[in-house]
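Work through this:
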Amino acid sequence: MGRVKYELDFVVKSSPTILFNFLSTPSGLSQWFADHVDNIEDKFSFFWDGFEEKAVVIEKEENIFIKFQMADGEPGEYFEFRIEKSPVTGDTILLISDFADDYDLEDQKILWDSQVHRLISKVGGAN
């Protein structure tokens, strides 16, 4: 048993610019990721049911990706939102990288799936 990195991908019918706004700003993240989000520069606070988790942006490239490290996370662990274009279909693809305990992996994937479906409905990118 241990922590493992996993990746998920979703087709999102949205421009990379609009999608990046939902992935990188407090107003965008509050619409699908957390109940409320605050930030000062690269420090973010995420609130769920009154519980707060803090993260820092450790790397980002406008309209391409943003990588967060949780304040209470393990060294070297992060979660990342990356935007790519399918070379075949031209679709916008959201790639999510995260870490989870072996025993919790499937539940984490289900949680991300649920959250990303909320995101897709917000950006108007329902399939």
About this structure: The longest helix spans residues 105-123. The helical segments are 16-24, 26-29, 105-123. The mean pLDDT is 93.
